[in-house]
Amino acid sequence: MAAEPQMQPAQSKAKAGDILLDVKGLKKYFPIQKGLLRKTVGHVKAVDDVSFFVRDGETLGLVGESGCGKTTAGRTIIRLYEPTAGQVLFNSHALASNGDRKLVNLLELSPEDMKTVRKEISMVFQDPVNSLNPRMTVSDIVAEPLTIHGLNLGPETEAIVIRLLERVGLRPDHLRRYPHEFSGGQRQRIGIARALSLNPRLVICDEPVSALDVSIQAQTLNLLQDLQQDFNLSYLFVAHDLSVVQHISDRVAVMYVGKIAEMADAEELYSHPLHPYTEALLSAVPKADPLYKSDRIVMQGEVADPSNPPSGCYFHPRCSYAEEVCKLKTPEFRELKPDHFVACHRAEELQLEGI
Amino acid sequence: MSEPLIEVKDLRVEFDVRAGIVKAVDGLTLTIQRGKTLGVIGESGCGKSMTARAILNMIPKPGKITQGKIVYHRRLQNNGQSQLDDIIELTELDPDGKVIREIRGGEIGMIFQEPMSSLTPVYTAGAHINEAVALHHLTPIRKVGDQIAEQVLAHHKLTKEEAREIAVEMLRRVGIPKPSQRVDSYPHQLSGGQRQRVMIAIALSCEPAMLIADEPTTALDVSIEAQILDIMRELQESVNMAIMFITHNLGVIASMADEVVVMYMGKAVEQAKVIDLFKNAKHPYTQALLKSIPHLGKKKTGARLASISGMVPDPFDLPTGCVFHPRCPMFMPGKCDKIAPSWTKVDEDHYVACLLYEEV
Questions:
Q1: What does the pLDDT read at residue B157?
Q2: Rounded to a whole number, what is the distance in Å from the CA of A159 to chain B's nearest CA?
Q3: Of A257, B31, B34, B230, which shows the fewest CB atoms inside 10 Å?
Q4: How far apart are CA B142 and CA B124, in angstroms?
């Protein structure tokens, strides 16, 4: 382990374009229990056979409406929830010897190995109020990951924490303050500093800006982009705001009821969507342009219930292009164009409109 | 064409708390026209919700209206013949009095952000439709239909069957499937989008002259948001209702509003027709807000968002002169930190409070 793992630019061996995280067939079912004996009567299929990957130094945006399983997917990857099935392959430095990389399945790691890998994967949470312990000072919060991993070197730690705070735009005199003394945007910066304290390679950002005002949101997004460049970070950026996701992501995956509907390069996905759900979502977003005349596709009904999803393609009851086959068969998630994956029976024939 | 419905004149709302006095709204003047939508945008704490509450004379304690007035041009139905406007000063009314209670809910409807907590959770299944208490909020344990019917009963003299019919009809109009069954549902049996539709149904059931919508779609998904906005537009057209639409979402404002007021720290900084505001914003704060949001469909790889530097100031320690000057990219030393800008007309229907447009 490096003597000073903090604030070093990420390991130079990582080449841009290498796959850092490869999720294959990930499933997370939550049991629905009823009655005195807590008998399992069904499952909420929060994440249902999801596959995606994140390359070194890139941002994968994971978008979808509430309850589509995007947050659960993010949390299952680092085993905050134990997955039901699937593989999460991670290209780890910490577990390899002599600075090399080793592909490991996070779901099969022993608790010790998992703890080692967790240094390379950190998380930024949505709610900057509840994700910080109100009884800890900023200095304790940011240093806690170091303590947990036995890297807290006493007096030197403070210098590390100060550097982290300065990096995220806070002042050293904030060190001894408590979370309630900060505004929402500042709290989110504290959360980001904490996520960076172990010099991770992958940061899972779960709706990091959705609780912030627009001007603070812009500051935070800019900060995340700067940090990504400086530390060669990869982000899994979970959010529901399509314009924010487009702004920050290199590639985007769209989730619907526990499954990935479409995944592609951000520009490609927004301009040439292949899945009707993506098209409908894009057209539903209110544009900040009063002259914009939209032929809005208004999706009928509501998001399907993941404990009792419709047959075939889960989107078919709301889809304006649905045919008989959509009710019967679950579409396969396939690569229709290079790097453009979609799960729709009619993807080849449909001419969908992007933005 | 333009007939004022509500005129807010030099309104000031103060909160006297232990740490000092906070001016939640400070000298705000605006007019809501009959049948039009006025958008109010601003960041959290800028006083937009407090303005809405002041109109309904519902400022929570220890808040007080310390200055200004709110004039309501009440239209009386004179047996379907000539229309008479009765001018009421809302701020002068007793907040618990009969007149304001007729106006709230009856003539000025409201929708709030949280559809769940706006519904009351304490009524049982046996609650009768004709239980005409003068509440206007949905309660989670009371049937949806009861809650709409109650609203109608509180403001019109109808039998309970008639009220129930209206409830079913309203649910149908806001796009709830199977309204005659849904009328017997409890709020917890509905999804967030459906609850917000019920709120709209309640607010609109008395055909109010104005609807105050305070972040009505912020808690909803985009697909549901699109449905709700469509419903609001349709209903507005059919009953010629004015809407005061409060939000921080510029996209929603662009698609809903006729006219927009931008607020910052309790003051209006700019007001214009929606197209002028988006295409020709004058105030540096408005310009910065418009630039700080990522625009869908305009991908520039690696592009940064223009952010507003600094933070919203401490309400107990407001900057001198123009309150925006510490964050303003156009800051003019010696002017902006000394002189408070006044409300200046820069164009037809376009007002701004900024020293850049004043001769000083």
A1: 64
A2: 25
A3: B230
A4: 6
Place of tokens 């009959």: B34
| Nearest of B77, B103, B75, B109 to residue B90 by alpha carbon | B103
Q: Domain ranges for chain B, please list them.
A: 1-117+209-283+349-354, 120-189
Mean pLDDT for A146-171 is 88
Residue A271: CA count within 13 A, CB half-sphere? 7
- What per-residue confidence (pLDDT) applies to B176? 77
By the 10 Å C-beta count (0-12 exposed, 13-18 middle, 19+ buried), A198 is classed as buried
B150: closest CA among B136, B171, B169?
B136
**Diameter of chain B measured on Cα atoms:** 69
Closest to B107 in 3D by CA, of B77, B84, B150, B82: B77
Q: What is the CATH number of domain B1-117+209-283+349-354?
A: 3.40.50.300
Interface test mutation site (partner B, options A247, A268, A278, A305, max chain B beta carbons within 10 A):
A247
Whether pTM > 0.90 for this model: the answer is no
The pair of three-digit structure tokens given for residue A290, joined into one six-digit string: 């009063």
Phi, psi of A157 (to 5 degrees): -60, -40
Task: Please say if the pLDDT value at position B300 is more than 70.
Answer: no
Average pLDDT, chain B: 81
Considering only CA atoms, which of B61, B48, B54, B63 is closest in space to residue B90?
B54
DSSP-based three-state secondary structure for A116: helix
In this structure, what DSSP letter does residue B188 have?
Answer: G
A293 and chain B in contact, CB less than 8 A: no
Q: What are phi and psi of A91, to 5 degrees?
A: -85, 90
Q: Give the Cα separation of B250 and B288 in Å (integer).
A: 12
Residue A225 with chain B: CB contacts under 8 Å: 302, 304
Task: Identify the residue with better confidence: A97 or B345.
Answer: B345
SS3 A262: strand
Q: Is pLDDT of B359 > 70?
A: yes
Q: What percent of chain B has pLDDT over 90?
A: 35
Nearest to A183 among B192, B194, B311 (CB): B311
Is B222's CB within 8 Å of A284's CB? Answer: yes
**A172 pLDDT above the threshold of 80:** yes
Asked if residues B214 and B52 have their Cβ atoms less than 8 Å apart, the reply is yes
